[in-house]
Amino acid sequence: MTQYHPLTEQEAIEYAKSIPGLFQADAALSSREIGDGNLNLVFHISDPAAGTSIILKQALPYAKVVGESWPLSLDRSRIESEALQIEGELCPDLVPRVYRYDTILALTVMEDLSDHIIMRKGLIERRVYPRFAGDIGRFLARTLFHTSDLGMNQQAKKLRLQQFINPDLCKITEDLIFDHPYTNADTNNFDEAIQDEAEALWNDQELHLEVARLRQGFLTNAQALLHGDLHTGSIFVTEHSTKVIDPEFAYYGPMGFDIGAVLANLLLNFAGQEGWSPDNASRSEYRRYLLQTVKDVWATFEREFRSLWNEGCVDRISRTPGFQDEYVRQLLRDTFGYAGCKMVRRIVGLAHVADIDTIAEPAAKERAQRLSLAIGKALIKHHRNAASIDELIDIAVKAAE
Ligand code: SR1
Ligand code: MG
After folding, report:
1. Other Cβ atoms within 10 Å of 259 Cβ, number
2. Which positions are annotated as binding ATP (predicted)?
3. Cα separation, 373 vs 165, whole angstroms
4. Which CATH number fits domain 9-111: 3.40.50.10240, 2.170.120.40, 3.30.200.20, 2.40.37.10?
5. Domain ranges for the chain
6. Is it the case that residue 1 has pLDDT exceeding 60?
7. Relative to the alpha carbon of 229, which ligand is closest?
8. Which terminus of the chain is less hemmed in, N or C, by CB atoms within 10 Å?
């Protein structure tokens, strides 16, 4: 196929068959478009007789969630496949295998992870993932360290930065996370019941100042190659395995943005526990699990990041005693701030999360929304003074009391 166009399910089969080694030539393949995200087509192609399958992900030239009025560059597909490749070199067990990238069709063919479940869904079902904190902490430490000036040659890093210039997707984040929730923007989307909360966000100058500082970091701090959208819908899990998918928002930005995304989404589920019903496992027990996971993610990240630094920092002057402690302290502060921004946007902004939106009882949903905003705002306001991950736990626990 020589020209870009969105594939049909049948064309996806023909495409899959044209790739040598994936399926038998005479296999009777079936194809389903299963994309439920905001931006892309996702085809699940399987050979039921052989029990084999693959995923074919194709970018659309606009944001699917809004429509053709919001054009988006197809280059994000290249960015996603190249980010997956780098992540795969650094953490082979934590990302799907990529079989092919097609520049013209803006399409990536990759491993099918249907034996896993999207983590957000798992958390909504109140499942427990014993490997998750260790795996994601290691993923964060390795991908962020090795793509930064600490872990790679600084001239090579500048060239890599060039490879990941991602203006359209950064613009989505700049608007939907760092701007629109703090003004009466058309894209905002919130329940009438929390109109008072939205207006409070629009008028809180102290909050705006902190968000402006965090936004500035997102715009200018090219610290490491980020995943860029590391929420629990971008992570597949089982009890024994963790796989990070969807790095189409990848760009060079502040490390705390990725770490904060993971923690924010655990905390959104924490807030969503307001939708608890007596036939589920105890709400407080599950909340303890979530908060312990938050602590373990940070602890693993910090331990692994420091050990990578101690064993392999490529920058002589960065090895000066005291600099590592200062650097990690700043990462913690950024993590608090970006986690807060990511919580606020999921309640009043364009794109929400199922952890909150699927709560059936309106009063419980409203409580969960208010709790998310309370935690998010407190994290943003406190972020420049953050000194320990325990403070984040305290903020969540106190807000839920
Ligand atoms: C228009 S895209 C909305 C959101 O979906 C993605 O997952 C990102 O989080 C983006 O902000
Ligand atoms: Mg995505």
Report:
1. 29
2. 40, 57, 111-113, 246-248
3. 31
4. 3.30.200.20
5. 9-111, 117-400
6. no
7. 1
8. C
- Least Cα distance to 35 among 10, 61, 52, 60 occurs for 60
pLDDT attached to residue 281: 64
Closest CA to 181 of 151, 203, 164: 203
Q: What is the C-alpha separation between 399 and 270, in angstroms, rounded?
A: 11
pLDDT score at 65? 86
Q: Does the structure show a pLDDT above 90 at 282?
A: no
Homologous superfamily of domain range 117-400: Aminoglycoside phosphotransferase (APH), C-terminal lobe (3.90.1200.10)
Whether ligand 1 lies within 6 angstroms of the CB of 353 is answered as: no
Taken as a whole, the chain contains a residue count of 401
The distance of Cα 180 from the centroid of its chain, to the nearest Å, equals 19
Q: Tell me what pLDDT residue 36 has.
A: 86
For ligand 1, the distance from its centroid to the CA atom of residue 34, given in whole angstroms, is 17
pLDDT tens sequence across 295-337: 999 999 999 999 999 999 999 999 999 999 999 999 999 999 9
In Å, how far are 33, 156, 201, 267 from 368, measured between CA atoms? 32, 45, 17, 11
Which residue is closest in CA terms to ligand 1's atom 4? 351
Mutation probe of ligand 1 site: the residue of 171, 176, 245, 251 with most atoms within 8 A of C-beta: 176
Is 117-400 the same fold as 9-111? no
Q: Is the CB of 54 under 6 A from ligand 1?
A: no
Contacts of 116 (CB under 8 A, 6+ apart): 236, 237, 238, 241, 243
The set of residues, in sequence order, having a beta carbon less than 8 Å from that of 225 and lying 6+ positions away, is 83, 86, 143, 144, 147, 160, 164, 250, 251, 252
Q: Which residues contact 51 (CB under 8 A, 6 or more apart)?
A: none
The whole-number average pLDDT for the span 229-234 is: 98
CB under 5 Å of ion ligand 2: residues:
37, 246
Q: Average pLDDT, stretch 188-196? A: 98
* DSSP state, residue 19: S
**pLDDT band, very low/low/confident/very high, at 5 (cuts 50, 70, 90):** very high
**Among candidate residues 195, 200, 82, 94, the one with its CA nearest the CA of residue 147:** 82
The predicted structure's pLDDT at residue 38: 86
